[in-house]
Specification:
CATH topology: OB fold (Dihydrolipoamide Acetyltransferase, E2P)
CATH architecture: Beta Barrel
Number of helices: 2
CATH class: Mainly Beta
Strand order of the largest sheet: 1-5-6
Distance between the termini: 80 Å
Number of strands: 6
Order of helices and strands: HEEEEHEE
Number of domains: 1
């Protein structure tokens, strides 16, 4: 004997499943990308370039493995040169670098950077 009123019809069940899936998908997509800020002594940074790929900074204190940061692959050559010059300038003066970066898993992409005043 079925109790009337407590049974969900197929259309309602589909709507409930779809709504639950949308909520879970939205939570996963917004939680996957985050932004962080850090300041680090320039002397600690190791800067490397691999062929035509933009510079990669290691030992910055970022949340990624080997604490690396890199520019977006589409960053113009002028921005890549500015990053090199900024890091070398900060190293020469014993200064610090400031970074805003996005991270998703083990990918840390620099959004902005600056040399901090001594």
């Amino acid at each position: 004997m079925a109790i009337k009123g407590n049974r969900m019809n197929k259309k309602s069940a589909r709507k409930a499943i779809c709504a639950a899936f949308c909520v879970v998908a939205a939570g996963v997509s917004t939680g996957a990308l985050a932004t962080a800020h850090l300041e680090v002594a320039a002397n600690a940074i190791q800067i490397q370039t691999y062929g035509s790929v933009s510079p990669v900074l290691f030992y910055t204190g970022s949340v990624c493995s080997t604490q690396h940061l890199n520019l977006d692959d589409s960053s113009p050559l002028d921005v890549q040169k500015l990053l090199w010059a900024s890091v070398l300038s900060a190293k020469a003066t014993g200064g610090k670098m400031s970074f805003e970066y996005d991270y998703n898993g083990d990918v840390c992409v620099i959004r902005s950077f600056s040399v901090m005043p001594n």
